[in-house]
Amino acid sequence: MDVKEAIEKRRAYRSLEPVKIDKMLIKELSEAASLAPSCFNNQPWKYVFV
């Protein structure tokens, strides 16, 4: 298999199962995002939770 054929045949499978998103999950995700490293210790991120 050459590179072009591998690229053409690749597939990205995604989970389509419903997930309950509650306030605790949003809190955990926001805490994890705040701990993520940034380039040159520059924190230009803004988060919006809808």
Could you tell me the mean pLDDT? 82
Category from helices, strands and their pairing: mainly alpha
The DSSP helix count reads 2
Ends apart, CA distance between termini: 44 Å
The helix/strand series, from N terminus to C terminus, equals HH
Q: Characterize the main sheet.
A: none
3D structure, described in words:
With 50 residues, the chain is mainly alpha-helical. It has two helices and no strands. It has helices at 3-9, 23-35.
Features of this protein?
50 residues; mainly alpha
Write the layout of secondary structure elements.
Elements: H1 3-9, H2 23-35
Could you write a compact summary of the structure shown?
By secondary structure, the protein is an all-alpha fold. It has helices at 3-9, 23-35.
